């Protein structure tokens, strides 16, 4: 019987010279491959007919199912006037809600995920930031520590702006 301190992964140790993980009890390779920097995604993107489009939401019909995705103004501009679109998806699954966020580019989605990693920034605030700035503009704002530009976004005060700049500086 293993002690409570040892934990579930106690019998698995990294062997010297071995890139994988070896079971200390049996000596067998127990390698697991994963990418820790990327969020686990069930839906990478949705491609289909633009059934409805507003500045905050797009409904994409794919194979008879209409997917309602919350979008930024940048995505709205990219999709506006098109009959078909592909939107990269971020799934937000909570106890009280299941929401899909849609983005015209992977870069925009990746920045959204980075913003969600900042304490006090949720989906609505991250979407507001991406509605106010393009990914290139936001990158410039972070590199130049432009607190005033971030504070111009609805829902972002001086403390939140400073936190966003600090957390995104090295990413």
The structural class is alpha+beta
- How helical, in percent, are the residues? 25-40%
User: What average pLDDT do the residues reach?
Assistant: 83
Number of helices: 6
Strand order of the largest sheet: 3-4-5-7-6
Q: Can you describe this structure in just a few lines?
A:
This protein has 6 helices and 7 strands, in the order βββββαββααααα.
Structure explained in plain terms:
- This protein is an alpha+beta fold and 171 residues long.
- Strands 3-4-5-7-6 form a 5-stranded mixed barrel. Strands 1-2 form a two-stranded antiparallel sheet.
- The protein has 6 helices and 7 strands, in the order E-E-E-E-E-H-E-E-H-H-H-H-H.
- 31% of the residues lie in helices and 25% in strands.
- A hairpin with a 3-residue loop joins strand 3 and strand 4 (57-62).
- The radius of gyration is 21 Å and the shape is globular.
- The protein has helices at 73-79, 106-116, 123-132, 135-143, 147-151, 158-168; strands spanning 12-13, 22-23, 45-53, 57-62, 65-71, 84-93, 98-103.
Helices, strands, pairings?
Blueprint: E1 12-13, E2 22-23, E3 45-53, E4 57-62, E5 65-71, H1 73-79, E6 84-93, E7 98-103, H2 106-116, H3 123-132, H4 135-143, H5 147-151, H6 158-168
Parallel strand pairs: 5-7
Antiparallel strand pairs: 1-2, 3-4, 3-6, 4-5, 6-7
Helix pairs in contact: 2-3
Essential attributes:
single chain; about 170 residues; alpha+beta; five-stranded mixed barrel; two-stranded antiparallel ribbon; 6 helices; 7 strands; about 25% strand; disordered N terminus
């Amino acid at each position: 019987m293993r002690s409570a301190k040892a934990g579930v992964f106690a019998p698995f140790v990294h062997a010297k010279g071995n890139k994988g993980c070896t079971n200390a009890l049996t000596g067998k390779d127990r390698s697991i491959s994963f990418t820790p920097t990327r969020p686990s995604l069930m839906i990478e993107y949705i491609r289909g007919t633009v059934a409805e489009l507003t500045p905050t939401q797009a409904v994409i019909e794919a194979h008879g199912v209409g997917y309602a995705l919350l979008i930024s103004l940048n995505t709205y501009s990219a999709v506006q006037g098109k009959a078909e679109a592909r939107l990269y998806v971020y799934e937000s699954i909570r106890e009280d809600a299941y929401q899909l966020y849609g983005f015209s580019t992977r870069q925009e989605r990746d920045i959204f995920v980075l913003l969600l990693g900042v304490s006090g920034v949720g989906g609505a605030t991250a979407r507001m930031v991406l509605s106010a700035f393009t990914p290139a503009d936001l990158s410039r704002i972070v590199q130049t520590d432009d607190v005033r530009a971030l504070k111009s976004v609805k829902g972002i005060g001086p403390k939140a702006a400073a936190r966003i700049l600090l957390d995104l500086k090295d990413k």
